[in-house]
Known about the structure:
Largest sheet: 5 strands, parallel
Number of strands: 11
Strand order of the largest sheet: 2-5-8-1-9
Shape: globular
Helix content: 55-70%
Amino acid sequence: MADTNVQVTEKWKEKIVNEDLTPKQIVERLDQYIIGQSKAKRAVAVALRNRTRRLKLPEDIRDEIAPKNILMIGPTGVGKTEIARRLAKLCNAPFLKVEATKYTEVGYVGRDVESMIRDLMAVGYKNVKAEMEEELREKCVSIVEEKLLDLLLPGSGNKKKSKIKSSENSEVVGGSEHIENYGSLSTKKISDDDYTREKFRSLLREGKLEEREVEVVFDRRQSMPSMEIIAGGNIDDLQNSMQNLASILTGNSRKKRTVTISEARKIITEETLDGMIDTDKVCEIAKKRVEQSGIVFIDEIDKIAVHGESHGQDVSREGVQRDILPIVEGSNVNTKFGVINTTHILFIAAGAFSVAAPSDLIPELQGRFPLRVELDSLHKEDFQKILQEPKNSLVMQYTKLLETEGVTLEICDDAIEKISFIAEDVNARAENIGARRLHTIMEKVLDEISFEADERSGETIKIDAAYVETRLKDIAEDQDLSRYIL
């Protein structure tokens, strides 16, 4: 088993940077999901490529090169979060999105700023563990099958093992005559047990026993790295660790449940995989991946900027900035998985900055986000592309949803143009919420069809500009009403 762990470990070490993509290739991949915003895409593409370049340098130079953190400035709904999320998926990097406002009023309703790194490490550990489990899943199938057979035929596996062991001992103690006598007495019994077990094995593989109920005993403790109980400093981690410790001390770590074979297979598979994987190796790989390629996206950073004199709540906001500063600069954070150095983690901050400006952040924090990218507001042409072009576009989503009810939805080009025009118009007259306005409008246009879809199975429904105008005309023209509904 140790050899398997080593092989898997080496394989996933190579996945710290998943693909050696050029900046142009990165932008092309992002274009599949996000419309426009070429400046932001270029900035994140270069930042990602620089991380790949840094890992190819000698170690003494590599440690000196810090990531160039990015500050995205633009209204809500234009793709800031989506760019960061898709970027993380491209490079197979641990990714965490946090709201800067979550850390205000620490000790009352907020959270410790260091918790973002603990959460990022938890994401990295979970990802690496899932990848290793997937690699070993095929190898544990035969083990799980034997355990299921032991549940269906209690004692059959043990009897077979004990007979074999006894015969081996007899060879040493009693000689050939004893073995011969033993064989004549027990061969039939062994054959019967073997036949029954093989019969059940055949039924199990054919799926004919999936609903049969069995009693499963399993470990209800969470799979955790060893003995790092109070290292994280997080109240949630401490609570979980204390519960696990209490289970060990009271001997209540094992739990019995009566489940079907189908459910038992899942439980036993997870428990078997936990036993096959070395958690220390998982921690080692996850730690390296987080430190070298982790990405933290800090949203709503403009909400902790202080405009003018500091007083009251503004003091708390400036305090959050000062707490975030050492994390972004590079510091060591204690987690239950070990100490994480944040020097080479990429931080992407984003905010609308409609009230405050980037210059309202404390100077030290401004200096830690050297790349400033302004994202453009979306217009009619952008909305048209968003509705049609990306993978899993909004039009395709609604079409597929209604197909499950047997309804064929045809949305014409003039309907898409009309929806895009209304989205741009309402965004201009009310709050600019970007592409999220399309969700509101599409729901309003298709509200009646979605409600009656189960009664209209087999129909083909055509949505054109006239239909859209009929559904939205009064709302779009009444500015007061559109503020509430669209």
